[in-house]
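Course exercise 7: structure representation. Students receive a sequence record and must write out the corresponding structure in token form. The form below is the worked example handed out in class, using dTDP-glucose 4,6-dehydratase (327 residues). Read each field label carefully; the graders check that inputs and outputs are placed in the correct fields and that the protein name is recorded exactly as given.

STUDENT ID: A-19
EXERCISE PROTEIN: dTDP-glucose 4,6-dehydratase
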Amino acid sequence: MEHLLVTGGAGFIGANFVRQARQRYRITVVDKLTYAGNRASLPEGVEFVHGDICEQPLIDELVSAADAVIHFAAESHNDNSLRAPEAFVESNINGTFALLEAVRKHDKRLHHISTDEVFGDLQLDGTDAFTETTAYNPSSPYSATKAGSDHLVRAWVRSFGVRATISNCSNNYGPYQHVEKFIPRQITNILCGAPAKLYGTGAQVRDWIHVDDHNAAVMAILERGRIGETYNIGASLPGDPHVTNKEVIETICELMGGTFEHVADRPGHDQRYTMDATKIRRELGWAPRYTDLRAGLEQTIEWYTHNRWWWEADKAGIERRYAERGQ
Ligand code: NAD
Ligand code: TDX
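STUDENT ANSWER:
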């Protein structure tokens, strides 16, 4: 494998992946540049195609020229999926379908990036975690479309012998994440002199992982994963204490000298995600390098502080939309 086609490479995780993978591979990025895509997140010199993964002829041509496809492209924000779900069905389901047809036709390797949210949520006071065999039970339009895309990938593996793998990862944080998402929204609020905004009570739990750890796991699966398999990716270990949204926001406020306020809760808000990533640790020898969330947050705060040029143009519009919903 020498040449990777990276879908959604101008988004948060995709751009960080390209930065990591370009040392070892020739890379072509295809990205629609929705509000979430930003060419400035990509390093100079990466081949870039401005296009939609739903366009079958374009995708066919790009897939035929590559050795493998890493599929990040998706509508990714739960809150948007509650307001306008159509684009989620289109990009996440139809887009994955178009890619699957192309990799089937040209017999190319595919790695499909998915989320822990396909499993639904867990009770706040429990100690259980999602494994690769947990039944799918998505809550939001976003997670339902990601679940649908995972099912399509599995069906194309079984029915047509497509050489694909899937990973389901927990919440990512790090540089180049859009300011609509939880951690960058709070950091940039404080940088703008506004309070951080906590949905509801903030008792909800997410299993935070640094984006570089996620991408190192993706690389391990691409290079050593077993075809047809699904791998959970998450940084916490069984028995680790749960980290609530309120604790994350308090840490950010403490590190930055800011304050926070409670705002309207998200309808249907998933309570807790906890990943059991034993399989990828055991089979592929992957382990996260960022095991201290506070240190990872400090580094992320530093990045947003020194890269205002990257996020400032998006900030006011995003906050206006949140304000319309009391958030
Ligand atoms: P993002 O919203 O930052 O980036 C998505 C990118 O895909 C953007 O550049 C956008 O322009 C592009 N895109 C969207 N629709 C497209 C289309 N039809 N054709 C071509 N390009 C299109 O998202 P992200 O946070 O980087 O997430 C990337 C992937 O990882 C998604 O599949 C998401 O479901 C998954 N994921 C994200 C997280 C997380 O915490 N952010 C966790 C687990 C899994
Ligand atoms: O301002 C906020 N205040 C707040 O309390 C925002 C934007 C969010 N929240 C809460 C909601 C969630 O409990 O923080 C938590 C994280 O919210 P998001 O960043 O919107 O992430 P989440 O909905 O958990 O989904 C994320 O992880 C899984 C990604 O956006 C998905 O793409 C990924 O699949």
